[in-house]
Amino acid sequence: MTTATESPRWFTSSYSDNGGDCVEAATNLAASHGLVPVRDTKHRDNGPVVAFPAPAWAAFVTAVKR
Asked: Cα–Cα distance between 33 and 45 in angstroms, integer?
C-alpha cells in the first residue's frame, strides 16, 4: 500500500558518468501518483523538480533507447 507521504527514491542512470551533468529520476512514484519527478544532480537540495506524467516519461525513455 502506498501512502501520501511516500518519498521519491532518486536514481541516476548507470550510463551517466559525464562529470556531474546528470539528472535523477524517481520512478517509484509512477504507479502510485502517475508522475515521475526529475531533478538536476548539481542542485539536489535547492533546485527545482519537474514532474512528468508517467506515460510521457515512458515514451521519452523508449525514444532515447532507440
From this structure: 22
Residue 4 binned pLDDT confidence (cut-offs 50, 70, 90): low
H helices then E strands: how many in the chain? 2, 3
Write the pLDDT tens digit of every residue in 5-33. Answer: 689 999 887 776 666 678 899 999 999 99
Handedness of CA 35, 28, 33, 59 (dihedral sign): positive
DSSP assignment of 4-26, as one string? TTPPP--B--TT--SSS--EEE-
User: 40: helix, coil or strand?
Assistant: strand
